[in-house]
Structures
1.
Amino acid sequence: MPVFFVASPDHPLMSKRNLAYSDVAEYPTLGLPSGAYPLVEASLKSIGLWNDFVRMSRYRREAWEGKTEAELTVGYGTVLSMEVSGSGLVPLPLHLPFDSGEVMVVRRDFCSHPRLLALRDLIVARLRQFARRYPEICLEPSSPRHG
């Protein structure tokens, strides 16, 4: 699934035309732990949006006046996360240069357990319902990986 920025509906970026990464960089972004998502981290650094504390402490009176950092923080989302979060955030019209996905990881000795297979089938059935509404959700064939 493509990843996009999310913010509160009254965020100043919502009214910005031709939104660019440099516009987003003027506001605090969701902090991610260094090293936890190496590909995401590298991608965010390449566009100048990694959560460094120097950038996050900038203050522009005309952009921030009357708002708290929490109200102005820009996060990340996908159609699936937006569907299930109920957070009240809305997507900004700017996609990030990476995709996201979901995976179920289990111990090898549980791979064929009937309850696990039933859980997998339930999850896949629910994801198929979402994929009918959101073509950006791409379901990969299910196959156990050993390694």
2.
Amino acid sequence: MMRTEPLTPDHDAAIARLIRENLKACHLDIPGTAYFDEALDHLSGFYDCPSRAYYVLVEDERVVGGVGLAEFSGFPHCCEMQKLYLDDSVKGHGYGYDLIRMIEEKARQMKYRQMYLETHTNLQAAVHIYEKSGFREIPRPDSVIHSTMNRFFLKDLTPSVMLKQTRL
């Protein structure tokens, strides 16, 4: 049975391992990526804040995915979708789209109006999902932390814009 639940310290090691495995598989186990983030082994502490959230996807008590959000100062009323990763065993079943929809709804509940994300050309499946989910590519913002990332996206989360995007 697949379910999502808020990240807890009990999930930290599993989600850190999952993120590193995904980055390594795409040759992004290099400086300037989340692979070397100081907080990666203790994400529950980083996301334990009213302006942040992280959820794990769990199947039979095993963490098989996750996605988070945190405030992003590059744009007004904006959060950054962070660390969307899936285990190979669940890729291709639509869970990435489900996690995006869930984290977008959480962002709206937290009163964010825009969602930013950064990724890399090597993560082709991720780029595809982001574009199909309504994110538009933008120039590199000045406030980018992960220097190796080379693709940047933004999505408006306000209802009127969402309605227009749905009609298109």
3.
Amino acid sequence: MGEKTQWRILLSLPSTMHLIYLLDTVITDLLREMKFDEETQEHVNLAVIEAGTNAIKHGNKEDVDKTATFEFLIDDSQLTIIITDEGSGFQREDVANPLEPENLLKSSGRGLFLMEAYMDEVGYEADGTVVKMVKYRQTDN
């Protein structure tokens, strides 16, 4: 029986948008290492950056004394990303659907929409202060 490969990578950032490039660097390298195809890499990268931006900007209100934490769980079948902020949270149903005609010109809701469109699973826990996203690996078989 083959052993299951599993990695856990933890990245904690002060809540400033100046450091979002570190998140971009980590997720880009992880996706490449996991051999996701280029389109999937772009989609997952965008979803993770959106989630990180939400945690820093909306959750922690860019308060550098608050931390946004990114946990990457990697195994043979999937990549799981858990994003945690120290904000007051939100309810998913309170965020407007960006595809509704009355919301087309509003900027809110697009990040969540992209996250949900590009990831295989997206869940909101602890009143929205924890976002868990999963992307399954493609199988060559």
4.
Amino acid sequence: MELVGKAYQHQMKGNVDKAMALYDQSLETFPTAEAFTFRGWAKSSRMDFEGAIADCHRAIDVDPEFGNPYNDIGAYLLEMGQLDDAVPWLRMALKAKRYESYCFPHFNLGRVFEGLDKLDVALEHYRKALDENPGYVAAVKAIERVKARLEIQETSSSGGGQ
């Protein structure tokens, strides 16, 4: 876990090459769900979503109770435009016993349903994300954006302004 911590620090500073090398070294020493998940995250920063998803599957094999890889698979599928495929992975993240950030799968589900134009469901998930993390600025902005879209829909469907 010491190597994972060092890798994470390098990744946060934008040194993905060094982070990847340290994640690899960590995995050679002792495979952990965290190392696979974070190496996947590093791969995703290079737009290697297939490699990132493969690492998340390895993480799940090591520890099926770790929530991060489920959310991350959902997020990568979302980035790839595979909205419907992302949903079950994000729902599994919400059920994971070992997860500290349930706001992220709720937020990502909000993104999915907003993309599918299911705005009421999107709003529900964005609100749950904000309930989980009251300081989550992206969720606040998403709620405002979806509310504005819903108001526009209501106005146009009621014949307002005509």
